[in-house]
C-alpha cells in the first residue's frame, strides 16, 4: 500500500535507533553531536585579570588628579604582584592577574606615563576593565547541553574546560549495495547494455556529507543467491542502503530476499515522484533503505529519507533541511496524487527566492540534477501551478545564499 510522503519520513524517524557514545579527541569532535551534558569543572576566568593593557590602580586614588607612582609590572602569565599600594599603580598587560588591592584598570590610552609616574587622564569607575573570576563560567554550570552539534565555539569552550576527550554519538557505518546485472564497476570499460555503478559513489558521498562512514559492498547480481550473500553482509553495519531492484520487475529481488533474511518491511511505495518504489525495513533495530536505481531517484530519496535517518541515528535533533518559500518562475504541471520534487535553480532577488527549472525533469536526466541547487516540493494534490506560485523549496547547496565576491 502506498504511504504518504510525510508519514513515510515520520515512520523512519520513529524507528531508527540512536547510536551509542564514543570518546574522541577534541580535534576530531567538530561536526559531531555531543552525547552528554558538559559540566564546568572550574571557573572561567580562573582568576580576576586585566581586560586591557594599562595600569592596575585603586579607583579612589585617581580622583585627585595627582600622578601615581609606578611600582611594578605584571605581564600576561605573570604573578599577581606587587600589590597596588595607596598612591601607586602597577603596569599590567591584558590577561595578567589582578594584584591585591587593585579595583580598576586604566588603559594606556587614558594614561600619560612619564618616568616613574603616571597621570590618569579620564574618570575611573570602580571595577572597570577587570574580568572577574567566574564571570563567564562557574563550576557546575552546564556549559554545553547534550545533543549540541559541535562547532568552533563549542570546541573553544570544551578546550577551555580541559576536555581532552569528548563524548559524542558514534558515526553511522552505512553499507551500500547496488544491484543489477547491467552494472559494471568504475574503472571498467563502458560496454553496450552496461552502466557504470554510479549510485554506490553518489550514496557514499552523501553518507559522508552527513557525517557517516560508507561501507562499499559493490554490486549484487540479479540472482537471489548473490543478493542474499551481500544483503546479509550489509546487515552487520549500522544501516544498509540498497539501490535498484525494488520495483515490481521479475528480477527485482531486494525485498523478497530481505524478507527471507528476517528483515521486516515497514513500507514499500511512497506517494512521491521521483522515488515512488522506495522501501523501508528493519532487521531488529538496523534500518534498511531500499532505494530505486535511477540515479536521480536514488539521490532524491536519500535526501528525503536516508539523510534525516542517519542524522537522527548520530544524535542530531534537527534532521530535515529547512524549507524556504520560493516563487516559481515558470508554470509547473503535475498529476495529482504524488508529491513531486522538481530540480530547480534558485536565485535570491531582493531577499526572495526565485526558482526556475534546472532542465528536463525526466528522472533519467542526470544533468538536471547536477545543474540543480534546490528541490521545489509540489504538493500532493496540486496539478497546475502557474508562474508566480509560492512553493516550498529545499536548498541543496549552501552556497546559494553565499555572495560572489
Ligand atoms: P531499477 O530500479 O532496477 O529499475 O533501475 C532503474 C534504472 O536505474 C535503470 O536504468 C538502471 O540501469 C539504473 N541503475 C540501477 N542501478 C544503478 C547504479 N548502481 N548506478 C547507476 N544507475 C543505476
Ligand atoms: Mg534492475
What's the level 1 CATH class of the largest domain? Alpha Beta
Share of residues in strands? 25-35%
- Total domain count: 4
Kindly state the number of beta strands. 28
Q: What value does the average pLDDT take? A: 97
- At CATH level 3, the topology of the largest domain is Molybdenum Cofactor Biosythetic Enzyme, Chain A
What is the CATH superfamily classification of the largest domain? MoaB/Mog-like domain
**Could you say which overall geometry the principal axes of the C-alpha atoms support?**
elongated
Question: How far from one another are the termini?
Answer: 51 Å
- Number of helices, where a helix is a run of at least 4 consecutive DSSP H or I residues: 7
How would you characterize the largest beta sheet?
6 strands, mixed
The molecules bound to the chains, other than polymers, are: adenosine monophosphate, magnesium ion
Radius of gyration: 31 Å
Q: Would you identify the CATH architecture of the largest domain?
A: 3-Layer(aba) Sandwich
The portion of residues assigned to helices is 10-25%
- Find the structural class using helix and strand composition: alpha/beta
Give an account of the 3D structure.
By secondary structure, this protein is an alpha/beta fold. It has 7 helices and 28 strands. The protein folds into 4 domains: 5-19 and 171-313, 3-Layer(aba) Sandwich (Molybdenum Cofactor Biosythetic Enzyme, Chain A); 21-44 and 136-169, Molybdopterin biosynthesis moea protein, domain 2; 49-131, Molybdopterin biosynthesis moeA protein, domain 3, CATH 2.170.190; 323-402, Beta-clip. The model has no long low-confidence stretch (mean pLDDT 97). The strands form 8 sheets. It has a 6-stranded mixed sheet, with no helix packed on it. A 6-stranded mixed sheet has the order 16-13-17-21-20-18, with helices on both faces. A 5-stranded mixed β-barrel has the order 22-25-24-26-28. It is 18% helix and 31% strand.
Amino acid at each position: 500500500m502506498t504511504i504518504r510522503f510525510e508519514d513515510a519520513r515520520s515512520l523512519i524517524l520513529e524507528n531508527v535507533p540512536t547510536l551509542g557514545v564514543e570518546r574522541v579527541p577534541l580535534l576530531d569532535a567538530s561536526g559531531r553531536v555531543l552525547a552528554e551534558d558538559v559540566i564546568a569543572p572550574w571557573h572561567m576566568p580562573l582568576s580576576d585579570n586585566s581586560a586591557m593593557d594599562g595600569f592596575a590602580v585603586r579607583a579612589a586614588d585617581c580622583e585627585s588628579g595627582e600622578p601615581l607612582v609606578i611600582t611594578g609590572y605584571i605581564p600576561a602569565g605573570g604573578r599577581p604582584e606587587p600589590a597596588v599600594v595607596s598612591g601607586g599603580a602597577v603596569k599590567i598587560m591584558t590577561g595578567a592577574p589582578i594584584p591585591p588591592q587593585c579595583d580598576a584598570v586604566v588603559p594606556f590610552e587614558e594614561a600619560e606615563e612619564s618616568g616613574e609616574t603616571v597621570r590618569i587622564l579620564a574618570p575611573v569607575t570602580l571595577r572597570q576593565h577587570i574580568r572577574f573570576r567566574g564571570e563567564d563560567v562557574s563550576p557546575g554550570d552546564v556549559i554545553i547541553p547534550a545533543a549540541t552539534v559541535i562547532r568552533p565555539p563549542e570546541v573553544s569552550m570544551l578546550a577551555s574546560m580541559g576536555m581532552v576527550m569528548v563524548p559524542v554519538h558514534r558515526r553511522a557505518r552505512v553499507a551500500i549495495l547496488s544491484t543489477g546485472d547491467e552494472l559494471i564497476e568504475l574503472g571498467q570499460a563502458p560496454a553496450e547494455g552496461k552502466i557504470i555503478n554510479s549510485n554506490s559513489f553518489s550514496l557514499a558521498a552523501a553518507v559522508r556529507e552527513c557525517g557517516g562512514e560508507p561501507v562499499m559492498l559493490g554490486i549484487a547480481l540479479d540472482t537471489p543467491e548473490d543478493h542474499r550473500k551481500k544483503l546479509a553482509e550489509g546487515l552487520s553495519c549500522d544501516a544498509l542502503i540498497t539501490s535498484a531492484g525494488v520495483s515490481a520487475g521479475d528480477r527485482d529481488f531486494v525485498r523478497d530476499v530481505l524478507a527471507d533474511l528476517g528483515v521486516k518491511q515497514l513500507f514499500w511505495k511512497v506517494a512521491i515522484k521521483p522515488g515512488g518504489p522506495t522501501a523501508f525495513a528493519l532487521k531488529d533495530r538496523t534500518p534498511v533503505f531500499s532505494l530505486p536505481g535511477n540515479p536521480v531517484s536514488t539521490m532524491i530519496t536519500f535526501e528525503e529519507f536516508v539523510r534525516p535517518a542517519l542524522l537522527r541515528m548520530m544524535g542530531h535533533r534537527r534532521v530535515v533541511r529547512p524549507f524556504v518559500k520560493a516563487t516559481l518562475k515558470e508554470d509547473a504541471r503535475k498529476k495529482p496524487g504524488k508529491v513531486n520534487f522538481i530540480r530547480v535553480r534558485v536565485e535570491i532577488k531582493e531577499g526572495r527566492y526565485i526558482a526556475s527549472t534546472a532542465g528536463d525533469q525526466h528522472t533519467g536526466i542526470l544533468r538536471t540534477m547536477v545543474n540543480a541547487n534546490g528541490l521545489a516540493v509540489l504538493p500532493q494534490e496540486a496539478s497546475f501551478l502557474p508562474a508566480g506560485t509560492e512553493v516550498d523549496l529545499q536548498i541543496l547547496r549552501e552556497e546559494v545564499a553565499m555572495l560572489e565576491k
